[in-house]
Prior knowledge:
The protein is α+β, with helices and mostly antiparallel strands. It is built from five helices and seven strands. The chain has a four-stranded antiparallel β-sheet with strand order 1-2-3-4, covered by helices on one side. The protein is elongated. It comes from Gordonia asplenii.
Amino acid sequence: xxxxxxxxDADVDSTTSQPDVDSTTSRPDVEQSSDENDADVExxxxxxxxxxxxxxxxxxxxxxxxxxxxxxxxxxxxxxxEITGPGQVHWPILAIFFVILGxxxxxxxxxxxxxxxxxxxxxTLRQGTQTIDLADIAKIYPANNSAEPKDWESAxxxxxxxxxxxxxxxxxxxxxxxxxxQAWARNDEVFRSExxxxxxxxxxxx
Length: 206
């Protein structure tokens, strides 16, 4: 073996025996970064604790069983008249009408419960499917007993409906972001009293 070949072999040995400094020193940083990512994921996975709405102060279901029963009751009346009369009893037709009218009434009641129900608790107000915190209300306007309309009477209604539902009366409120809205209920006098008292209690921190 020549001297040049010996020097080449020595260079190869020194290269292969040199430790991987970069990979060894960077491993703790990688592990630390992984631990931080795991901690962030765990923190994000923990849901916020729901706020206790408190005791229910006012509730209107929004739907009535009368809408469900009217159709089937009429069909039963017709059935009784046909049974007691001299003519033929139309069982298939009456059965179809019974199912259709009963189902239509049930759908009406379900929709009314979803969109026109009201629930007021010590800390929240639910109108239809929308729920707001009483702390988000900045002002509750008094009832308008004059002939001149107020600005809040033309404001949108709380909830998913554009206006105050039929057979309900609006109560003007101003939200913390400055928007005018109308809370609403069928029994507006009792609702206004309960809403005002609950809102004042929240403002005082009670």
